[in-house]
Amino acid sequence: MTAKILDGKSIAQRIKDGLKAEIEVLKKEGSPLKLAAVQVGESEASGVYTRAQKKNCEKLGIDYELTILDEGLGQKEIIEHIQKLNQDDSVTGIILQLPLPQGISAVEVQSKIDVGKDVEGVNPANLGWITYGKPRLIPCTVAAVMELIKAAGVDLYGKEAVMVGHSDIVGKPVALLLLNKFATTSVCHIATGERGNLAEYVRKAELLIVAVGKANLVKGEWIKEGAIVIDVGINRVEGKILGDVEFEEAKERAGWITPVPGGVGPVTTAMLLRNTVMAARKEEKENG
Ligand code: NAD
Question: Is 265 close to ligand 1, i.e. is its CB under 6 Å away?
């Protein structure tokens, strides 16, 4: 079997095209639509992200405003800036660029972002809504994983799903969303790998999602015939970008597979835009 490719670029384009009509409605109503990005200190990496955010927003007609706060500011001052944005009615979405300088707790600052403007879904309240089966604004990568699964057109009820990686903003929320859909969900992490049990879990996965950050960790021969494989990993190896799954080998066994690059990444970008529009519409924000 050769897998069908879950082409993130075309899925992302379809989502962005779909948002245009909603944005037009907001504009006609005179409703504000502005994403406010907050960065603390300057770094080359965050510059790449914020330039991309600005370009993507502008293409759709979403206002974008970046504030770069002084690197020497303390947590209290950063939170004060977030609270100013919370109160500013012209701002409909807030994004906090990571990493923050040492000594500042990202979770503490994220917990102060207005839940309705939290377009990255990182406020503990928005993550908590996932637990209760009522997802609202959810992390963009998590939303991208769910969108790619949807594109494969599979009913998750009773399916064997395996999530490799248990980070707070990818692995854990994805696992909860799969549980909400009644997939029988296993979560693997570093200790699974250290015990040598990873292959055993992967081999039974009808749906496999991998978010670890280790190139080619998951061997192609472990993939179950016909499985849906979503590879979140981004690894730079000798000038190339690789995922966490051995793509060429896995493609011969899987039913559907995401490439890296060109899979989860572009859909994640589209999900930030979708979350931004959802936040601006201020209506019931069921997601995932
Ligand atoms: P993280 O570092 O927070 O978590 C890594 C996870 O992998 C942990 O749960 C850890 O226990 C697990 N792990 C480590 N070694 C393992 C092993 N040998 N076997 C099994 N599990 C193991 O990572 P994260 O923030 O969730 O990111 C994971 C990857 O996804 C990274 O490559 C990151 O760059 C990428 N990522 C991509 C996007 C995107 O938009 N495409 C977004 C976020 C993260």
Answer: yes
Query: 163 and 186 in contact (C-beta within 8 Å)?
Result: yes
CATH topology of domain 30-115: Rossmann fold (3.40.50)
What's domain 139-266's architecture?
Answer: 3-Layer(aba) Sandwich (3.40)
pLDDT at 142: 98
Residue nearest atom 21 in ligand 1 by C-alpha distance: 189
> What's the rounded Cα separation, in Å, for the pair 157 and 141?
22
How far is C-alpha 230 from the chain's CA centre? 12
How far away, in angstroms, is 44 Cα from ligand 1 center?
22
Q: Are strands 207-210 and 228-231 parallel, antiparallel or unpaired?
A: parallel
In this prediction, residue 207 has a pLDDT band, given cuts at 50, 70 and 90, of very high
Q: State the residue for tokens 């066994």.
A: 253
- Interstrand relation of 235-237 and 240-242 (parallel, antiparallel or unpaired): antiparallel
Distance 199 CA to ligand 1 centre (A): 17
Query: pTM for the full model?
Result: 0.97
Domain-wise residue ranges, the chain: 30-115, 139-266
pLDDT one-digit tens code per residue, 210-235: 999 999 999 999 999 999 999 999 99
The SS3 assignment for 169 reads: coil
CATH topology agreement for domains 30-115 and 139-266: yes
Q: Which helix (H) or strand (E) holds 41?
A: none
In 3D space, the residue among 253, 250, 249, 232 whose CA is nearest the CA of residue 241 turns out to be 232
